Amino acid sequence: MARSSRPRRFHLALNAALLPLAITTLLAYIGSVLWSIRISFSTSRMLPKDDWAGFAQFERLFNTDRWMVSLQHMGILAVVYIGGVIVLGTLMAIFIDQRVKAESWFRTIFLYPFAMSFVVTGLIWQWLFNPGLGLQHAFRELGWESFTFDWTTRQDLVIYAVGIAMVWQGSGTTMAIILAALRGVDEEQWKAAQLEGVSKPRYYFSIVLPQIGPAFATSFVLLAVALVRTFDIVAIMTHGGPGDASEVPAKFIIDHLFERNNIALASAASVVMLITVFTVLTPMLYWRSKVQARLNAGH
C-alpha cells in the first residue's frame, strides 16, 4: 500500500506544480481571446466600453482600403514566404542528407539566420536593399553603374523584398524539420531503388518526400502562424511603406491599437485573423494526424 501511494502522491505533486501554468494559460490566453472578441462587438476607442454595436466594426474593417490591401499583401507573402521556405528548406535538407563533409558546419550556417530575431533580420535586409548604402551602392562603386537593388523604395517590389528577407530567416527551421524526417527513412529503400535504376533526384521526389508528409505539414503550420504574426520585420524594414505598399494585418492591428486608439477595430481585425488561422490550420492538422496514423499502422 505504501508503494502504491507514492506514485499517486508524486503525480499529485506534478499536477499541483502545473496548476499555476494552467491558470495562467486560461487567464492570459483564453481570457484575452474572449476579451478581444467581446470588444470587437463594441464601440470602444481609447478605453473599452461595455456596449453592443453588433457587426459594425467588422463592416467598417472590410470597408477600409488599408485593411484590404494588407490582406492582399499577406496572400503574396503566403506564396513567397511559405512556398520559398519549404522549397529552399527541403533542398538544403536533401543536400545535408547526402552525408556531406563538414555536415555540422553546414547545419550551423543554414540555421544561423533563425537564431536572429525578425528585428535583426529586418535591419540586415534594410541595409542590403538601401540604394545609398547597400548592395546597389557597393556594385556601383565597383563600376557597375546600371546595377539596381532598390526594392524597398519601389511600391511594386517592396512586399517581395520583405518576403525574401523572411525566407532567408526561416529556411533553416524547415531544413531541420525535413532533415530529421529524412533521417528516419529506411536507407534500404535507396539500395532497392538503385537496383531498379532509379536516379537520386527521382528517389527523393518520388519515393522519400511523399513519406514525410507530416514533416511538411508541421512546417506549414509553423510558417502559417509566423506569417500571421509578421510585424517586426515589416516595421523595421519598411514601416509599412512606401505608402501602404508593404502593409500587413499585424501592423494594421498594432497601429490601430496603440497609435490610433481604436481598440474595437483592432480587436475586430484580430478576430478575423484568428478565424483565418483556424480555417487554414484545422484541416491541415487533421490531415497530418490521418497521415501519421496511416504511417504508424504501416509500421
Automatic annotation (TrEMBL):
Cross-referenced SUPFAM superfamilies: MetI-like
Family: Belongs to the binding-protein-dependent transport system permease family.
Top-rank lineage group of the source organism: Bacteria
Transmembrane segments: 12-37, 74-96, 108-128, 157-182, 203-228, 263-287
Protein name as catalogued: Glucose/mannose transport system permease protein
InterPro entries: ABC_transporter_permease, MetI-like, MetI-like_sf
Pfam families: BPD_transp_1
Domain named ABC transmembrane type-1: residues: 71-282
Compartments where found: Cell membrane
Alphabetic keyword roster: Cell membrane, Membrane, Transmembrane, Transmembrane helix, Transport
Membrane topology (UniProt): Multi-pass membrane protein
